[in-house]
Amino acid sequence: MTIFDESLILETINMIKLHNFDIRTVTLSVSLRDCCSEDTGVVCDKIRFKLDKYAKNLVKYADEIENDYSIPIVNKRIAVTPVSIIGESCTNRDYVKIARTLDECAKNLGVDFIGGFSALVEKGFTGGDLGLIESIPEALASTERLCSSVNLASSKAGINMDAVLKMSSIIKKAADLTADKDGLGSAKLVCFCNSVGDNPFMAGAYCGYGEPECALNIGVSGPGVVRASILDLPPEADLGVLANKIKQTAYKITGTGELIGRRLAEKLNVPFGVIDLSLAPTPAIGDSVAQIFQAMGLEHAGAHGTTAALAMLNDAVKKGGIMASSFVGGLSGAFIPVSEDAGMIEAASKGYLTFDKLEAMTCVCSVGLDMIAVPGDTPVSTIAGVIADEMAIGMINKKTTAVRIIPAPGKRVGDKVVFGGLLGEAPIMPVNKLSSEGFVNRGGRIPAPIHSLNN
Fold first, then answer.
1. Which listed residue, of 138, 222, 298, 319, carries a Cα 20 to 30 Å from 49's Cα?
2. Which CATH architecture has domain 29-193?
3. Burial 387-399 (b: 16+ CB within 10 A, else e)
4. For the structural domain made of 220-445, what CATH number should be given?
């Protein structure tokens, strides 16, 4: 006879019902490398066929598993091969048409987002890369579910400053073309250093060149669960005890996530890829990374000690998760998006969390400057300086960093942008008024650091 541990059953129920534990995303990674053609129309037809072949049951099966296990699966997504590669073979390149085809497929398949309108230009541009990048503003303005990313730097190649400056203009244009939606276009566009091809989270998800024909990647989340586990400890518990508690919690979250991911991959008859351990917050109360800092003993996110707390949190989550699964990948750690985290929104609104403090925190978190709204009149050169700083952090530290910045049209410090849903809302944060123009306009490539020569 099976012996059930009542305490573990109740703990799992509480994780879901009281502390916002969920499967944040299941992302089907689909290679489109065999969809190339000289004709854009043929490419679009091949994309429709390929995505329908692999993803037609993604939402249906995810919903069935959600009901079977009573664990919420918040987002169903698709990630495809960087579209700059797929469209490059066309003699009549029309990346906007491909973008609209991807968006149409996402809508017909019922997924929340589709990622991979992407280019990898850390060392330079091809004609296809430039074509895709130039089309990003119109593509994002004329679609609903499409997400875009561009990798501008890596620890091996350095920082492509020509691409940094170009993307700063593209970000501004994407915001301006969606001014009626508070610059939503730029909220679906991210610039990376050291991007990874198995990341299930948007806006940076794409199917990497070394990925299989199709795979199911999963992203778990549980800031509320981690916070609750910390609050269960006595207030005098030392930081070693605290770290162990976070590791134990991450272990449980990861095991549950991999179970769901493998069941869904099995039903779809595709390989299971990776589980991303990231603590991804939402605007919901109690589902906040910033509130974990408060549970640790900080008055609020932004207090001195926040970076140390984030470093410990990120490391403990990874240590716990890696013990539970041999297939950890993606970004894996803690996200700190300003608009998507209720505690971060509050801290930024009250001035506790400054731009400089956020940049410092990105040295130890999973991603970078994420969903930060700035005044609409912020110069392109200043945005380029922000991106360059973040790319440098990733390059030197051999980690993934990113910038998702929203120069909100017509907005000033004191205003806010409101996107609703998972993207939330954010106060307009001030940026440094000093000019970066002379530096960023030099162009060229910032060379890779010496540790790139480690073969």
1. 138
2. Alpha-Beta Barrel (3.20)
3. bbbbbbbbbebeb
4. 3.20.70.20
